[in-house]
Amino acid sequence: MAAPLFNEAERNFNAQVAGELRAAGFRVWLAQEAPFIQNGSADEKKAIFDGDTEALRNSDIVLALLDGIDVDPGVAFELGYAHALGKPIFGLKTDYRTFSRIEEINLMLEVPIRSIFRSIKDAIEGLKRAEATHA
Predict the structure, then answer these.
(1) Are 66 and 93 in contact (CB under 8 A)?
(2) In which band, very low, low, confident or very high, does the pLDDT at 132 lie, cut at 50, 70 and 90?
(3) Dist CA 26 CA 46 (whole Å)
(4) How large is the average pLDDT for residues 3-14?
(5) Which of 12, 29, 52, 54 measures 20 to 30 Å from 81, CA to CA?
């Protein structure tokens, strides 16, 4: 799950989404649950980067949280990386604001996303359909 994690509200929402996905039977990797920056060393930052990109490589499906007028830069990177790997990408956007009058989010991110869901419930249903077609 690609998600911003830089404030309490984001982390709480991420935990809620991950919890509901897990309750629906999905295995979820969430960066905020992985070891996080303790001292800011170059080695530590590299280990976090490597862990994140490894999780993307090992994922069958990527769900990106897209709330906000602009997608979080880390989420944007993860979307590009997942797209380059050929991973199916889905979005969850509960925020009604749009990037522009013709785009939900920046088109360079919107185009590779197969579906943008508007609720956690819709995301779970859509991901189950996607999983069933890949099985």
Answers:
(1) yes
(2) confident
(3) 28
(4) 95
(5) 12
| CA atoms of 59 and 101, how far apart (whole Å) | 33
Element (DSSP H or E) covering residue 13: helix 8-23
Domains of the chain: 8-134 (3.40.50.450)
Rounded distance between C-alpha atoms, residue 135 and residue 46, angstroms: 34
CA distances from 2 to 39, 63, 124 (A): 23, 6, 15
Structure tokens at 122: 């819709």
Q: Which two tokens stand for residue 31?
A: 């960066």
Question: Could you give the CA distance from residue 97 to residue 67 in angstroms, rounded to a whole number?
Answer: 8
Nearest CA to 32 among 54, 51, 14, 50? 14
Tens digit of each residue's pLDDT (9 = 90 or more) over 60-117: 999 999 998 899 999 999 999 999 999 999 999 999 988 888 888 999 999 999 999 9
